[in-house]
Design goal:
Blueprint (H helix, E strand, L loop, with lengths): L5 H4 L9 H21 L1 H13 L6 H14 L1 H5 L9 H18 L2 H20 L1 H6 L1 H5 L12 H18 L5 E3 L2 E4 L2 E4 L7 H18 L3 H32 L8 H22 L7 H5 L14 H25 L19 E3 L15 E9 L2 E10 L24 E12 L2 E11 L4 E10 L2 E3 L2 H13 L6 E9 L4 H26 L1
Antiparallel strand pairs: 1-2, 2-3, 4-5, 5-6, 6-11, 7-8, 8-9, 9-10, 9-11
Helix pairs in contact: 2-7, 2-15, 3-7, 6-7, 6-15, 6-16, 7-15, 10-12, 11-12, 12-13
Protein backbone atom coordinates (compact mmCIF):
# COMPACT_ATOMS: atom_id res chain seq x y z
CA UNK A 1 0.00 0.00 0.00
CA UNK A 2 1.36 3.37 -0.96
CA UNK A 3 2.13 5.79 1.89
CA UNK A 4 0.67 9.16 0.97
CA UNK A 5 2.54 12.34 1.77
CA UNK A 6 1.04 15.59 2.95
CA UNK A 7 1.25 17.16 -0.49
CA UNK A 8 -0.58 14.21 -2.06
CA UNK A 9 -3.46 14.61 0.38
CA UNK A 10 -4.17 18.12 -0.90
CA UNK A 11 -6.63 18.59 -3.71
CA UNK A 12 -6.55 21.48 -6.16
CA UNK A 13 -7.59 24.65 -4.42
CA UNK A 14 -6.30 23.37 -1.06
CA UNK A 15 -3.02 24.33 0.60
CA UNK A 16 -1.46 24.45 3.99
CA UNK A 17 -1.09 27.75 5.78
CA UNK A 18 1.24 30.21 4.14
CA UNK A 19 4.90 29.66 5.10
CA UNK A 20 5.15 33.40 5.63
CA UNK A 21 2.31 33.25 8.18
CA UNK A 22 4.02 30.47 10.10
CA UNK A 23 7.39 32.20 9.96
CA UNK A 24 5.83 35.38 11.32
CA UNK A 25 3.91 33.51 14.04
CA UNK A 26 6.96 31.43 15.01
CA UNK A 27 9.01 34.57 15.45
CA UNK A 28 6.32 36.02 17.71
CA UNK A 29 5.97 32.93 19.88
CA UNK A 30 9.73 32.63 20.40
CA UNK A 31 9.91 36.33 21.24
CA UNK A 32 7.03 35.95 23.70
CA UNK A 33 8.71 32.97 25.38
CA UNK A 34 11.96 34.90 25.68
CA UNK A 35 9.99 37.83 27.13
CA UNK A 36 8.37 35.49 29.67
CA UNK A 37 11.67 33.95 30.81
CA UNK A 38 13.29 37.39 31.05
CA UNK A 39 10.58 38.74 33.36
CA UNK A 40 10.59 35.60 35.52
CA UNK A 41 14.33 34.96 35.46
CA UNK A 42 14.55 34.59 39.24
CA UNK A 43 11.97 31.82 39.17
CA UNK A 44 13.84 30.05 36.38
CA UNK A 45 17.08 30.39 38.33
CA UNK A 46 15.51 28.97 41.49
CA UNK A 47 14.32 25.93 39.55
CA UNK A 48 17.70 25.30 37.92
CA UNK A 49 19.45 25.75 41.27
CA UNK A 50 17.37 22.90 42.72
CA UNK A 51 18.19 20.69 39.72
CA UNK A 52 21.88 21.33 40.36
CA UNK A 53 21.94 20.61 44.09
CA UNK A 54 19.37 17.82 44.37
CA UNK A 55 19.86 14.33 42.97
CA UNK A 56 16.12 13.78 43.35
CA UNK A 57 15.28 16.54 40.86
CA UNK A 58 18.33 16.41 38.56
CA UNK A 59 16.04 14.98 35.86
CA UNK A 60 14.80 18.54 35.34
CA UNK A 61 17.74 19.20 33.02
CA UNK A 62 16.35 16.59 30.60
CA UNK A 63 12.73 17.74 30.57
CA UNK A 64 13.10 20.81 28.32
CA UNK A 65 15.14 18.98 25.60
CA UNK A 66 12.67 16.09 25.63
CA UNK A 67 9.72 18.48 25.29
CA UNK A 68 11.48 20.25 22.39
CA UNK A 69 12.10 16.89 20.71
CA UNK A 70 8.44 15.89 21.08
CA UNK A 71 7.38 19.19 19.51
CA UNK A 72 9.86 18.67 16.67
CA UNK A 73 8.35 15.24 15.94
CA UNK A 74 4.97 16.92 15.43
CA UNK A 75 6.25 19.80 13.31
CA UNK A 76 4.76 18.65 9.98
CA UNK A 77 1.31 17.99 11.42
CA UNK A 78 1.36 21.27 13.35
CA UNK A 79 2.45 23.28 10.30
CA UNK A 80 -0.74 22.20 8.53
CA UNK A 81 -3.02 23.51 11.27
CA UNK A 82 -5.03 26.68 11.30
CA UNK A 83 -3.49 29.75 12.92
CA UNK A 84 -6.06 31.64 14.96
CA UNK A 85 -5.16 33.56 18.14
CA UNK A 86 -6.88 32.14 21.22
CA UNK A 87 -8.01 35.22 23.10
CA UNK A 88 -9.79 32.99 25.64
CA UNK A 89 -6.33 32.07 26.93
CA UNK A 90 -5.68 35.63 28.13
CA UNK A 91 -7.87 35.42 31.29
CA UNK A 92 -6.20 32.11 32.14
CA UNK A 93 -2.81 33.71 31.59
CA UNK A 94 -3.83 36.45 34.03
CA UNK A 95 -4.94 33.83 36.54
CA UNK A 96 -1.61 32.00 36.25
CA UNK A 97 0.21 35.31 36.70
CA UNK A 98 -1.81 36.08 39.83
CA UNK A 99 -0.94 32.63 41.13
CA UNK A 100 2.72 33.46 40.59
CA UNK A 101 2.22 36.72 42.50
CA UNK A 102 0.69 34.89 45.46
CA UNK A 103 3.60 32.44 45.39
CA UNK A 104 6.05 35.34 45.34
CA UNK A 105 4.39 37.06 48.29
CA UNK A 106 4.13 33.82 50.26
CA UNK A 107 7.67 32.72 49.44
CA UNK A 108 6.24 29.52 47.91
CA UNK A 109 8.79 28.69 45.23
CA UNK A 110 6.93 25.66 43.90
CA UNK A 111 3.79 27.78 43.30
CA UNK A 112 5.84 30.34 41.37
CA UNK A 113 7.51 27.61 39.31
CA UNK A 114 4.27 25.86 38.42
CA UNK A 115 2.64 29.18 37.51
CA UNK A 116 5.57 30.04 35.24
CA UNK A 117 5.50 26.67 33.45
CA UNK A 118 1.72 26.87 32.99
CA UNK A 119 2.15 30.26 31.30
CA UNK A 120 4.13 28.61 28.47
CA UNK A 121 1.25 26.60 26.91
CA UNK A 122 -1.08 29.51 27.62
CA UNK A 123 1.18 31.77 25.56
CA UNK A 124 1.15 29.22 22.74
CA UNK A 125 -2.63 29.06 22.95
CA UNK A 126 -3.06 32.84 22.99
CA UNK A 127 -0.78 33.46 20.00
CA UNK A 128 -1.09 30.33 17.82
CA UNK A 129 -4.62 29.23 18.65
CA UNK A 130 -6.73 26.27 19.74
CA UNK A 131 -5.63 23.73 17.15
CA UNK A 132 -1.92 24.20 17.75
CA UNK A 133 -2.09 24.00 21.54
CA UNK A 134 -4.32 20.92 21.25
CA UNK A 135 -1.80 19.19 18.96
CA UNK A 136 1.08 20.06 21.31
CA UNK A 137 -0.78 19.47 24.55
CA UNK A 138 1.37 16.61 25.80
CA UNK A 139 4.80 18.07 24.87
CA UNK A 140 3.87 21.35 26.54
CA UNK A 141 2.33 19.65 29.59
CA UNK A 142 5.44 17.50 29.90
CA UNK A 143 7.28 20.65 31.01
CA UNK A 144 5.42 20.47 34.33
CA UNK A 145 7.73 17.60 35.30
CA UNK A 146 10.60 20.11 35.39
CA UNK A 147 9.16 21.66 38.56
CA UNK A 148 10.87 20.21 41.66
CA UNK A 149 7.85 18.85 43.49
CA UNK A 150 7.16 15.98 45.85
CA UNK A 151 9.29 16.53 48.94
CA UNK A 152 6.14 16.73 51.06
CA UNK A 153 5.70 12.99 50.34
CA UNK A 154 8.96 12.08 52.07
CA UNK A 155 7.62 11.56 55.64
CA UNK A 156 4.78 9.29 54.47
CA UNK A 157 7.04 7.34 52.11
CA UNK A 158 9.66 6.83 54.83
CA UNK A 159 6.92 5.65 57.19
CA UNK A 160 5.48 3.14 54.70
CA UNK A 161 8.92 1.84 53.74
CA UNK A 162 9.73 1.27 57.41
CA UNK A 163 6.34 -0.43 57.92
CA UNK A 164 6.96 -2.90 55.10
CA UNK A 165 10.55 -3.58 56.14
CA UNK A 166 9.49 -4.40 59.69
CA UNK A 167 6.65 -6.60 58.41
CA UNK A 168 8.95 -8.49 56.03
CA UNK A 169 11.68 -8.94 58.66
CA UNK A 170 9.20 -10.38 61.15
CA UNK A 171 7.82 -12.64 58.41
CA UNK A 172 11.40 -13.84 57.89
CA UNK A 173 11.71 -14.73 61.56
CA UNK A 174 14.04 -11.84 62.48
CA UNK A 175 13.15 -9.95 65.67
CA UNK A 176 13.05 -6.20 65.14
CA UNK A 177 12.59 -3.19 67.41
CA UNK A 178 11.36 0.01 65.80
CA UNK A 179 11.40 3.63 66.92
CA UNK A 180 10.08 5.85 64.18
CA UNK A 181 12.32 5.27 61.16
CA UNK A 182 15.03 3.55 63.24
CA UNK A 183 15.16 -0.25 63.20
CA UNK A 184 17.20 -2.52 65.46
CA UNK A 185 17.78 -6.20 64.64
CA UNK A 186 20.22 -8.66 66.30
CA UNK A 187 22.97 -7.95 63.75
CA UNK A 188 22.84 -4.13 63.88
CA UNK A 189 20.94 -0.87 63.54
CA UNK A 190 19.28 0.56 60.44
CA UNK A 191 17.37 3.72 59.62
CA UNK A 192 15.09 4.67 56.74
CA UNK A 193 16.29 8.07 55.51
CA UNK A 194 15.31 10.29 52.57
CA UNK A 195 17.42 8.34 50.07
CA UNK A 196 15.57 5.17 51.09
CA UNK A 197 12.09 6.67 50.76
CA UNK A 198 11.76 5.81 47.07
CA UNK A 199 10.87 9.35 45.97
CA UNK A 200 13.70 9.38 43.44
CA UNK A 201 12.50 6.08 42.00
CA UNK A 202 8.94 7.34 41.65
CA UNK A 203 9.94 10.60 39.94
CA UNK A 204 12.28 8.81 37.52
CA UNK A 205 9.71 6.10 36.81
CA UNK A 206 6.82 8.55 36.34
CA UNK A 207 8.86 10.68 33.92
CA UNK A 208 9.91 7.69 31.84
CA UNK A 209 6.45 6.12 32.08
CA UNK A 210 4.64 9.22 30.79
CA UNK A 211 7.03 9.54 27.86
CA UNK A 212 6.80 5.84 27.02
CA UNK A 213 3.00 5.78 27.25
CA UNK A 214 2.67 8.83 24.97
CA UNK A 215 4.98 7.43 22.30
CA UNK A 216 3.96 3.77 22.49
CA UNK A 217 0.18 3.79 23.00
CA UNK A 218 -2.75 5.46 21.28
CA UNK A 219 -5.69 4.50 23.50
CA UNK A 220 -6.26 6.56 26.64
CA UNK A 221 -6.96 3.44 28.73
CA UNK A 222 -3.56 1.87 27.97
CA UNK A 223 -1.75 5.13 28.60
CA UNK A 224 -3.44 5.62 31.96
CA UNK A 225 -2.82 2.02 33.03
CA UNK A 226 0.86 2.21 32.15
CA UNK A 227 1.33 5.51 33.98
CA UNK A 228 -0.40 4.09 37.07
CA UNK A 229 1.91 1.07 36.87
CA UNK A 230 4.87 3.46 36.61
CA UNK A 231 3.91 4.89 40.01
CA UNK A 232 2.82 1.73 41.85
CA UNK A 233 5.65 -0.56 40.70
CA UNK A 234 8.54 1.62 41.98
CA UNK A 235 6.81 2.05 45.35
CA UNK A 236 6.56 -1.71 45.84
CA UNK A 237 10.04 -2.20 44.36
CA UNK A 238 11.47 0.26 46.86
CA UNK A 239 9.88 -1.62 49.75
CA UNK A 240 11.43 -4.86 48.49
CA UNK A 241 14.77 -3.11 47.96
CA UNK A 242 14.83 -1.81 51.56
CA UNK A 243 14.03 -5.27 52.92
CA UNK A 244 16.65 -6.96 50.74
CA UNK A 245 19.33 -4.43 51.74
CA UNK A 246 18.70 -5.16 55.42
CA UNK A 247 18.73 -8.89 54.74
CA UNK A 248 22.03 -8.68 52.82
CA UNK A 249 23.58 -6.79 55.71
CA UNK A 250 22.15 -9.19 58.27
CA UNK A 251 23.18 -12.39 56.47
CA UNK A 252 26.69 -11.05 55.72
CA UNK A 253 27.34 -10.04 59.32
CA UNK A 254 27.10 -6.34 58.34
CA UNK A 255 29.90 -6.68 55.77
CA UNK A 256 27.82 -5.82 52.70
CA UNK A 257 25.09 -3.28 51.84
CA UNK A 258 26.23 -0.80 54.48
CA UNK A 259 28.41 1.50 52.32
CA UNK A 260 28.35 2.71 48.74
CA UNK A 261 27.28 -0.76 47.65
CA UNK A 262 24.01 -0.01 49.44
CA UNK A 263 23.15 2.56 46.75
CA UNK A 264 24.59 0.44 43.92
CA UNK A 265 22.39 -2.53 44.83
CA UNK A 266 19.38 -0.25 45.04
CA UNK A 267 19.80 1.33 41.60
CA UNK A 268 20.66 -1.99 39.96
CA UNK A 269 17.45 -3.46 41.37
CA UNK A 270 15.45 -0.40 40.27
CA UNK A 271 16.94 -0.62 36.77
CA UNK A 272 15.97 -4.29 36.51
CA UNK A 273 12.41 -3.56 37.67
CA UNK A 274 11.98 -0.70 35.18
CA UNK A 275 13.36 -2.82 32.33
CA UNK A 276 10.85 -5.51 33.25
CA UNK A 277 8.02 -2.96 33.36
CA UNK A 278 8.81 -1.60 29.89
CA UNK A 279 9.27 -5.10 28.48
CA UNK A 280 5.84 -6.13 29.71
CA UNK A 281 4.34 -2.85 28.48
CA UNK A 282 5.79 -3.39 25.00
CA UNK A 283 3.57 -6.43 24.50
CA UNK A 284 0.57 -4.10 24.01
CA UNK A 285 2.29 -1.32 22.06
CA UNK A 286 0.27 0.66 19.55
CA UNK A 287 2.80 3.02 18.04
CA UNK A 288 2.20 3.34 14.29
CA UNK A 289 4.80 5.01 12.10
CA UNK A 290 2.26 6.49 9.72
CA UNK A 291 0.54 8.27 12.60
CA UNK A 292 3.61 10.37 13.15
CA UNK A 293 4.59 10.81 9.48
CA UNK A 294 1.26 11.77 7.96
CA UNK A 295 -0.45 14.96 9.13
CA UNK A 296 -4.12 14.87 9.93
CA UNK A 297 -5.99 15.53 6.63
CA UNK A 298 -8.54 17.64 8.49
CA UNK A 299 -5.82 20.13 9.25
CA UNK A 300 -4.90 20.39 5.55
CA UNK A 301 -8.14 21.86 4.32
CA UNK A 302 -7.70 25.32 2.94
CA UNK A 303 -8.92 28.03 5.31
CA UNK A 304 -8.87 31.78 5.21
CA UNK A 305 -5.43 33.24 5.72
CA UNK A 306 -4.87 34.15 9.37
CA UNK A 307 -4.93 37.81 10.26
CA UNK A 308 -1.40 38.94 11.04
CA UNK A 309 -2.87 41.89 12.87
CA UNK A 310 -4.91 39.58 15.15
CA UNK A 311 -1.82 37.51 15.92
CA UNK A 312 0.16 40.64 16.70
CA UNK A 313 -2.59 42.00 18.98
CA UNK A 314 -2.76 38.67 20.83
CA UNK A 315 1.01 38.69 21.26
CA UNK A 316 1.08 42.22 22.64
CA UNK A 317 -1.83 41.49 25.00
CA UNK A 318 -0.13 38.33 26.25
CA UNK A 319 3.18 40.17 26.70
CA UNK A 320 1.45 42.83 28.79
CA UNK A 321 -0.32 40.17 30.85
CA UNK A 322 3.01 38.49 31.54
CA UNK A 323 4.78 41.67 32.62
CA UNK A 324 2.30 43.16 35.10
CA UNK A 325 2.78 40.55 37.84
CA UNK A 326 6.51 41.01 38.49
CA UNK A 327 5.87 44.77 38.51
CA UNK A 328 3.08 44.30 41.08
CA UNK A 329 5.32 42.04 43.15
CA UNK A 330 8.09 44.65 43.18
CA UNK A 331 5.66 47.26 44.51
CA UNK A 332 4.26 44.95 47.20
CA UNK A 333 7.60 43.43 48.12
CA UNK A 334 9.21 46.49 49.62
CA UNK A 335 11.78 45.52 52.24
CA UNK A 336 11.28 46.82 55.73
CA UNK A 337 13.96 47.36 58.40
CA UNK A 338 15.49 44.36 60.10
CA UNK A 339 13.48 43.28 63.14
CA UNK A 340 14.67 44.06 66.65
CA UNK A 341 13.82 40.89 68.52
CA UNK A 342 14.51 41.70 72.13
CA UNK A 343 12.65 39.13 74.18
CA UNK A 344 13.07 39.90 77.83
CA UNK A 345 11.08 37.21 79.56
CA UNK A 346 10.58 38.26 83.12
CA UNK A 347 10.68 35.31 85.52
CA UNK A 348 7.16 33.96 85.68
CA UNK A 349 5.76 30.89 87.32
CA UNK A 350 9.13 30.16 88.87
CA UNK A 351 11.02 29.84 85.57
CA UNK A 352 14.41 31.56 85.53
CA UNK A 353 16.94 31.94 82.67
CA UNK A 354 20.13 29.99 83.31
CA UNK A 355 23.45 29.57 81.54
CA UNK A 356 23.44 25.78 81.84
CA UNK A 357 23.52 23.67 78.71
CA UNK A 358 20.54 21.39 78.30
CA UNK A 359 21.67 19.48 75.19
CA UNK A 360 23.98 19.70 72.18
CA UNK A 361 20.96 19.62 69.87
CA UNK A 362 19.71 22.75 68.15
CA UNK A 363 17.02 23.12 65.48
CA UNK A 364 18.10 24.00 61.96
CA UNK A 365 16.38 27.16 60.74
CA UNK A 366 18.33 28.92 58.01
CA UNK A 367 19.21 32.63 58.19
CA UNK A 368 16.52 34.14 60.42
CA UNK A 369 16.79 37.92 60.75
CA UNK A 370 16.76 37.50 64.52
CA UNK A 371 16.79 34.56 66.89
CA UNK A 372 16.76 33.67 70.55
CA UNK A 373 18.23 30.60 72.26
CA UNK A 374 17.77 30.33 76.00
CA UNK A 375 17.53 27.68 78.71
CA UNK A 376 15.14 28.17 81.63
CA UNK A 377 15.05 26.30 84.94
CA UNK A 378 12.44 25.73 87.63
CA UNK A 379 13.55 23.65 90.58
CA UNK A 380 15.36 20.71 89.00
CA UNK A 381 13.53 20.99 85.69
CA UNK A 382 14.96 22.66 82.61
CA UNK A 383 13.33 23.76 79.36
CA UNK A 384 14.91 25.15 76.22
CA UNK A 385 13.38 27.93 74.11
CA UNK A 386 14.25 28.75 70.48
CA UNK A 387 12.66 31.54 68.44
CA UNK A 388 13.61 32.24 64.83
CA UNK A 389 12.18 35.49 63.44
CA UNK A 390 11.92 36.16 59.69
CA UNK A 391 11.28 39.36 57.75
CA UNK A 392 11.88 40.41 54.12
CA UNK A 393 11.79 36.72 53.28
CA UNK A 394 13.55 35.53 50.15
CA UNK A 395 14.98 32.33 48.76
CA UNK A 396 17.45 30.95 51.29
CA UNK A 397 15.91 32.90 54.16
CA UNK A 398 12.30 31.81 54.63
CA UNK A 399 10.27 30.71 57.62
CA UNK A 400 8.54 27.89 55.72
CA UNK A 401 11.21 26.02 53.79
CA UNK A 402 12.29 22.45 53.17
CA UNK A 403 15.70 23.51 54.47
CA UNK A 404 14.26 24.25 57.93
CA UNK A 405 13.82 21.24 60.19
CA UNK A 406 14.43 19.89 63.66
CA UNK A 407 16.98 17.31 62.53
CA UNK A 408 18.65 16.98 59.13
CA UNK A 409 18.44 13.52 57.59
CA UNK A 410 22.20 12.92 57.66
CA UNK A 411 22.64 13.92 61.31
CA UNK A 412 24.70 11.13 62.87
CA UNK A 413 23.96 12.15 66.45
CA UNK A 414 20.24 12.93 66.52
CA UNK A 415 17.20 11.44 64.83
CA UNK A 416 13.50 12.33 64.73
CA UNK A 417 11.60 9.22 65.81
CA UNK A 418 8.07 10.52 65.39
CA UNK A 419 5.78 13.53 65.21
CA UNK A 420 2.15 14.17 66.01
CA UNK A 421 -0.14 17.18 66.12
CA UNK A 422 -1.76 18.25 69.37
CA UNK A 423 -3.54 21.25 70.87
CA UNK A 424 -2.82 22.89 74.20
CA UNK A 425 -4.86 25.54 76.00
CA UNK A 426 -3.13 28.65 77.35
CA UNK A 427 -5.23 31.37 78.99
CA UNK A 428 -8.38 29.98 77.32
CA UNK A 429 -6.70 30.13 73.90
CA UNK A 430 -6.20 26.95 71.86
CA UNK A 431 -2.65 26.67 70.55
CA UNK A 432 -1.99 24.07 67.82
CA UNK A 433 1.49 22.58 67.79
CA UNK A 434 3.59 19.73 66.46
CA UNK A 435 5.06 17.41 69.08
CA UNK A 436 8.23 15.54 68.10
CA UNK A 437 10.45 13.05 69.87
CA UNK A 438 14.17 13.26 69.15
CA UNK A 439 16.78 10.79 70.28
CA UNK A 440 20.53 10.39 70.39
CA UNK A 441 22.65 7.58 71.79
CA UNK A 442 22.41 9.02 75.30
CA UNK A 443 19.27 11.17 75.49
CA UNK A 444 15.76 11.82 74.29
CA UNK A 445 13.98 15.14 73.86
CA UNK A 446 10.32 16.10 73.69
CA UNK A 447 9.93 19.08 71.33
CA UNK A 448 6.93 21.34 70.73
CA UNK A 449 6.92 23.78 67.83
CA UNK A 450 4.50 26.11 66.09
CA UNK A 451 4.57 29.10 63.72
CA UNK A 452 3.52 32.66 64.39
CA UNK A 453 2.31 34.31 61.17
CA UNK A 454 0.11 37.39 60.72
CA UNK A 455 -0.41 37.43 64.48
CA UNK A 456 -1.78 33.86 64.52
CA UNK A 457 -0.42 30.56 65.83
CA UNK A 458 -0.48 27.88 63.11
CA UNK A 459 1.19 24.56 62.34
CA UNK A 460 0.01 23.91 58.79
CA UNK A 461 2.76 25.24 56.50
CA UNK A 462 0.34 25.82 53.60
CA UNK A 463 -2.00 27.88 55.75
CA UNK A 464 1.02 29.80 57.06
CA UNK A 465 2.03 30.60 53.46
CA UNK A 466 -1.49 31.85 52.65
CA UNK A 467 -1.50 34.07 55.76
CA UNK A 468 1.87 35.47 54.73
CA UNK A 469 0.62 36.23 51.21
CA UNK A 470 -2.53 37.89 52.59
CA UNK A 471 -0.47 40.03 54.95
CA UNK A 472 1.78 41.24 52.13
CA UNK A 473 -1.15 41.95 49.81
CA UNK A 474 -2.56 44.21 52.54
CA UNK A 475 0.79 45.96 52.92
CA UNK A 476 1.49 44.54 56.38
CA UNK A 477 4.78 42.82 55.62
CA UNK A 478 5.78 39.15 55.73
CA UNK A 479 6.93 38.85 59.35
CA UNK A 480 6.76 35.38 60.86
CA UNK A 481 8.48 33.28 63.48
CA UNK A 482 8.91 29.73 64.66
CA UNK A 483 8.63 29.02 68.38
CA UNK A 484 10.21 25.84 69.74
CA UNK A 485 10.28 24.60 73.32
CA UNK A 486 11.94 21.34 74.39
CA UNK A 487 12.97 19.32 77.40
CA UNK A 488 14.53 15.97 78.20
CA UNK A 489 12.41 12.83 78.38
CA UNK A 490 13.07 10.18 80.98
CA UNK A 491 10.74 7.21 81.33
CA UNK A 492 7.42 9.09 81.21
CA UNK A 493 6.61 11.28 78.21
CA UNK A 494 3.63 12.84 79.99
CA UNK A 495 5.87 14.20 82.74
CA UNK A 496 7.98 15.97 80.10
CA UNK A 497 4.82 17.23 78.38
CA UNK A 498 3.63 18.63 81.71
CA UNK A 499 6.89 20.55 82.08
CA UNK A 500 6.50 22.08 78.66
CA UNK A 501 2.86 22.95 79.33
CA UNK A 502 3.83 24.70 82.58
CA UNK A 503 6.60 26.64 80.82
CA UNK A 504 4.34 27.72 77.94
CA UNK A 505 1.60 28.78 80.38
CA UNK A 506 4.09 31.02 82.16
CA UNK A 507 5.95 32.53 79.23
CA UNK A 508 3.66 32.59 76.16
CA UNK A 509 2.10 36.01 76.96
CA UNK A 510 5.56 37.58 77.10
CA UNK A 511 6.61 35.75 73.92
CA UNK A 512 3.50 36.97 72.07
CA UNK A 513 4.06 40.53 73.23
CA UNK A 514 7.69 40.47 72.10
CA UNK A 515 6.77 39.05 68.67
CA UNK A 516 4.07 41.68 68.17
CA UNK A 517 6.49 44.43 69.20
CA UNK A 518 9.09 43.17 66.71
CA UNK A 519 6.45 43.18 63.96
Amino acid sequence: MKLETASELLRPGQASESPRSWLFASGLIFSALFWLLAWYGNTVHSMVAIWERSETFAHGFAIVPISAWLIWRRRHAVAALDLRPGFLALPLLALAGFGWLLGQLAGAGVVQQYALVIMIPLLVWAILGNEVVRALFFPLSFLLLAVPFGEFLLPAMIEHTADFTVFALKLSGIPVYREGAFLTIPSGNWSVVEACSGLRYIIASLTAGLLYAYITYRSLARRVLFVVASVVVPIVANWLRAYMIVMIGHLSGMKYAIGIDHLIYGWLFFGFVMMLLFWIGSRWREDIVTHQLVPDPVGLVKRDQPSMMAIMVATLAAAAMVAIWPIAAARLDGAGPDPQLAIDLQPAGGWEPVTDRLTDWTPRFVLPQAQLKQIYAKDARRVGLYIGYYRNQREGSQLISSQNMLVVSDNKEWGNIGETQRIIVVANERIPLIEARLRSRSAQLLVWRWYWVDGQYVVNPYWAKLLQAKSKLLGQGDDGAVVIVYTEVDANREVAAGQLQDFVNSTLPAIAQSLSHAR
